[in-house]
Amino acid sequence: MKISDSNVIPRLAPDQPRAKIRSYYLADEARVVNELIDIAHLSIADRRSISEYAAALIIKVRRSSRPSMMENFLAEYGLTSKEGVALMCLAEALLRVPDAQTIDELIEDKISHGNWGKHLGHSESQLVNVSTWALLLTGKVIAPADEKKLRITLQSLVKRMGEPLVRTAVAQAMKELGRHFVLGSSIQKASRRARELEAQGYTYSYDMLGEAARTEADARRYHLAYSDAITALAPACTHEDIRDNPGISVKLSALHARYEIGQHRRVMTELVARTSSLAVLARSANMGFNIDAEEADRLDISLEVIEAVLGNPALKGWDGFGVVVQAFSRRANHVLDWLYDLAQRLDRKIMVRLVKGAYWDTEIKRAQVLGLADYPLFTRKVNTDVSYLAWGAGPRASQYLILAGKARAVLAGRTHVTPEDIQAVAHPVLRHRLITNFSAEADGISTDDLIDRLMEAISLDGSDAGTKQQMDTVLRS
Predict the structure, then answer these.
(1) 130: helix, coil or strand?
(2) Same domain (yes/no): 156, 191
(3) Which of 154, 203, 393, 409 can bridge 414 by disulfide, Cβ–Cβ 3.0-4.6 Å?
(4) What DSSP character marks residue 132?
(5) 8 Å CB contact between 236 and 246
(6) Contact 366/46 with Cβ under 8 angstroms?
């Protein structure tokens, strides 16, 4: 068999948007941040308005509800302390750990080195103070022995006798905390627990924790689990608007054990087929279907899979396909550009979930292990914040508004664009680029209402010199 270059190095999409994404893999961080600052263009007034609105939300929450156990713990154990980080890691991890030995090892690793004594009696919650006392005793019981002879023997004996009791007590406390991170241990339990808030108008997008296929058997099992989850959630999808129905997030790495660039051919046949079958099933339920984010070095092949799945003719006319984009990636802005270009080419709508990012420390360590010259993501949180703020209804909105207006003029046999053309295309062009805030939703103001106000504020004859100021006022209201 003759081995060609394409057998070894797959021919990834050569188009300009994808090339742009690749060129930013290890782009200079300062340069990328400066570009994003120019895009975000937040004025002093905007910053002040954001801060005031955030403060008002916090005050409203604090006044309208009693703090939960989770909030009391966070008040005492901030995530900037070693103890706080240990508790949060333990709370989330214990929900996935299947065996007693691993639970013991986790408790010893996370608790034995903490300085729990400094937190004793500080919280207003008696439950938190009692838990702190238990953590203090636990840390002393399972702390590594550092003295010889009798003390070592006694501590080892206490450790062996005490661990089952410690495991039960600590695991129960941590599971109570973990309930704030994880809705349920199964899709049935999660959907039942979600009903209370769904009755108040909230919606959920369900994500399965811990999925990672190591074998073909794993991949098949997870594919079946996703299928079962979609089927279980289907009865709750009662709304015509897909945004009002529950959704599900899928990790591509759970559906294929060799989800890597070196297995490009297998991925583009086996993984695309599995993902497409799930997407078609979600469409039949009128459910949102999101492709979750993966590690930085899988981004290129992820985009290949996303394009292949979304291009499936069976998904034409469906607005439920979504993609999660991580703002801490230096390529995030160009990934968003590519997604918009893809939506235009395939005549699809794509739901984009922009998140700050996950497993930052793992990505940093991986880059160091690989000996990369730089990192594929931002090394400072403030830079990630800039990336997150930079993307909304930006310059492309006005560009496509003009292009759509020109297209309407040509279809009407005219060589010039009129204000009526812009008004006619404003809703389809801007609707998916604007998201109402909590105040607007509380007042019953929809995205279409905002666009209507915007159009009313624009003078049809173009003679109003204050049009821009009017537009800014409408969009802020």
Answers:
(1) helix
(2) no
(3) 409
(4) H
(5) yes
(6) no
Is 348 strand, coil or helix? coil
Looking at the structure of the chain, the number of domains it has is 3
Rounded Cα–Cα distance for residues 249 and 242 (Å): 15
264 Cβ contact list (under 8 Å, min separation 6): 10, 12, 301, 304
Q: What are phi and psi of 455, to 5 degrees?
A: -65, -35
**What are 377's strand-pairing partners?**
329
- Shared domain for 403 and 444, answered yes or no, is yes
Give backbone dihedrals phi and psi of 325, rounded to 5 degrees, phi first.
-120, 130
Closest CA to 205 of 277, 310, 146, 292: 292
First to last CA, the chain: 67
**Of 145, 178, 211, which residue constitutes the final position of a domain?**
178
Find the mean pLDDT for residues 350-371. Answer: 90
Average pLDDT, the chain: 76
Residue 28 CA to residue 416 CA, distance in Å, equals 43
Phi, psi of 354 (to 5 degrees): -90, 115
Question: Which comes out higher in pLDDT, residue 473 or 449?
Answer: 449
> Torsion over CA of 123, 125, 129 and 135, rounded to 10 degrees?
-100
Within-domain flag for 54: no
Q: Residues 394-426: pLDDT tens digits?
A: 445 666 677 777 777 777 777 777 778 788 888
CA distance 112 to 86: 10
- Give the C-alpha separation, 259 to 262, whole Å: 9
User: What are residue 321's DSSP bridge partners?
Assistant: 289
